Amino acid sequence: MEKFYLEVPGPERKEEAFEYLGEFEKYGSGLNGAGGLNRFKEDYEGWLQMTEERALIEPNEETAPAREFFLIRENDNRIIGMINIRIALNERFRKHGGHIGYSIRPTERRKGYNKINLYLGLKICNQYGIRTALLDADLDNPASWKTMEALGGIRIREFYDDEKAHCDVVVYNIDVEKALSEYAVYEEAIADFRIETERLFLRRMKPEDYDALYAVLADPEIMRHYPYTFDEERVRSWIERNRERYRKFGFGLWALCLKDNGEMIGDCGLTLQNIEGEMLPEIGYHIRADRQHKGYAKEAAAAVRDWAFRNTSYPALYSYCKYTNVASYKTAEAIGMVFDREYADEANGITHVSVIRRR
Ligand SMILES: CC(C)(COP(=O)(O)OP(=O)(O)OC[C@H]1O[C@@H](n2cnc3c(N)ncnc32)[C@H](O)[C@@H]1OP(=O)(O)O)[C@@H](O)C(=O)NCCC(=O)NCCS
Q: Could you tell me which CATH number the domain at 194-357 has?
């Protein structure tokens, strides 16, 4: 079965990106939803730089922060589409453009791929706390607005746009969480999650991981720096919560397993955590006691760091722990994080935060 994922554009896709664009020209297709790549024909690196900068800007009258992704078909590692997510809107984009723009290469259209593209894009919206996505399309572009309707989009407005599009435009709202839950059937088209390192692999947790995870999280020594040690119920709900995170955000804590024999010896992954009042992407890890001090946490966390910079658009990744948890923040520093801040809070007394920024 064909499987897809979103990828932050990187230098290695240069030729393919222009080949993608070339297809639009060959078939005389409009260049909407191609992230402005057409304006950088001779300068892919310039486009990459522009996309990096655009992700970080503060919204102002003229512009708003946005991030492009390639829709990659895993089976042949090919760019099939693009999607552009505006992380915040200004007046201008509220009126025209909304949160999302997308495209599918002409030779791959009418195969249902844009529905998968939008489904994945809604997970990105969720990562940024966008509850209701605003989208618009020209009325004479049914492929675009039918995609919105296929993911539960409600038409809220129709108007003649005499400023930009010079045609009838239809405007939609999509309830992001509702769409991700009601159209979870698209999960079948999402690439199976797996990261490999030299000695480890990470995969999604499943209910059968209960015993292996209990051996980690119910160990009072390992959980010494946490407000509580886990009991059976907490371990089971930990697994469920992470499975829910995969669906809602496309990431969570994953099962950390040895390549040699497949044994799960801990967890490691990315979650959104409330760090001093702000929901920020956090790399977390727990390793079973008898497998500690072998560099596994560092190896897994480095792989999660690389995955997060490639598959999400966060400008920085964090790790946080109780200030006494030296092993935890030393692991963070071992993957290139640096001290960010410490602050007083109820759970930890003092919380220690480390950070690494996208380069
Ligand atoms: C809009 C676009 C992304 C759709 O891609 P796609 O992969 O062909 O879309 P899908 O196959 O997933 O189909 C999505 C829906 O649109 C319908 N559709 C697709 N092409 C259509 C067409 N030419 N006419 C009418 N309906 C069409 C599909 O039947 C489906 O609706 P359904 O679920 O009710 O059957 C693609 O046409 C494109 O790249 N266009 C150029 C860029 C663009 O206009 N982007 C939108 C503005 S940012």
A: 3.40.630.30
